[in-house]
Amino acid sequence: MPARRRSARVASREEPVAKKPKTEAAEETESTKTPELEVGDELPSLKLLDNEENEVDVSEVAKNSKYLVIFAYPKASTPGCTRQACGFQKSYQSFVDNDTKVFGLSTDSPKAQQNFVDKQGLKYPLLSDPKRELIGLLGAKKSPSGTKRSHWIFVDGKLAVKKVQVSPEDSFTTSLKDIEGFVAKNGGVKPEAKVEEKEDAKPEDSKPEEPETKLEEKAVPVAEPEAKSEVEKPATETDTQPEAQPVAQPEAQPETKPETE
């Protein structure tokens, strides 16, 4: 009996020892968790390098864009990520027509991102986030060091759509549908572009007025009033000839020949 009681006590002491590492691991994950953006939040100032090693402030990009789509993928040049990136490339012109900027995001280096761009002919930039700063901020971190395939849509600088853990096909198809829905409700920058086209048309309307003035200038020499004066000159010469004849006649008449006889 005493032996049984001791074994029970030993077992009771070993149970909490096994639980300690679990609680410590939980505390570590809680302490390393980064705050995630929720719908309605704005991106903080965060600078990352793109595939051309240009520094990009994602906060400024979001503020200066009517619509912004950022999609995350686990690793460049892998099958699923290639389908996702090529899907956005096929729909890229539709995004542009709807005043939307597109950015890819992963932990790959700028060099690996550039190789991905060159192989697939991507026309949009890819951001390099090796420390998973933006990836964690958007809620796409995957333990221990992975990335969940996701995409986000920002409207006027604020997070409007957050889709985490999606398939490659759903990533580009649903994001385009959401953008088209936003444009249908809110519109884009296109109305402003139309106003600029009207302003550009004003100088074109004034251009046809120039040839009209040139025609008026050409019409002046057509009248040629000086030519009429030249016609009148010979008329004045004929008038002077008969005036000379009566002057000569009275001089020849006074002859006094009969008186001398």
Automatic annotation (TrEMBL):
Coiled-coil ranges (or none): none
List the subcellular locations: Nucleus
Enzyme Commission number(s) from the entry: 1.11.1.24
Short name of one Pfam family: AhpC-TSA
Q: Which family does it belong to?
A: Belongs to the peroxiredoxin family. BCP/PrxQ subfamily.
Q: Which reaction does it catalyse?
A: a hydroperoxide + [thioredoxin]-dithiol = an alcohol + [thioredoxin]-disulfide + H2O
Provide the alphabetized UniProt keywords: Antioxidant, Disulfide bond, Nucleus, Oxidoreductase, Peroxidase, Redox-active center
The Thioredoxin domain covers which part of the protein?
37-174
Q: What is this protein called?
A: thioredoxin-dependent peroxiredoxin
Biased composition range(s): Basic and acidic residues: 11-36, 191-236
What are the start and end residues of every segment in region (Disordered)? 1-51, 184-261
The record's annotation in InterPro entries points to: AhpC/TSA (IPR000866), Peroxiredoxin_BCP/PrxQ (IPR050924), Thioredoxin-like_sf (IPR036249), Thioredoxin_domain (IPR013766)
Which BP terms from GO are recorded? cell redox homeostasis; cellular response to oxidative stress
The molecular function terms in GO held by this entry are:
thioredoxin peroxidase activity
Instruction: Give the enzyme's main class according to its UniProt record, as a single word.
Output: oxidoreductase
Transmembrane feature ranges:
none
Quaternary structure, per UniProt, is:
Monomer.
The record's Gene Ontology cellular component field reads:
cytoplasm; nucleus
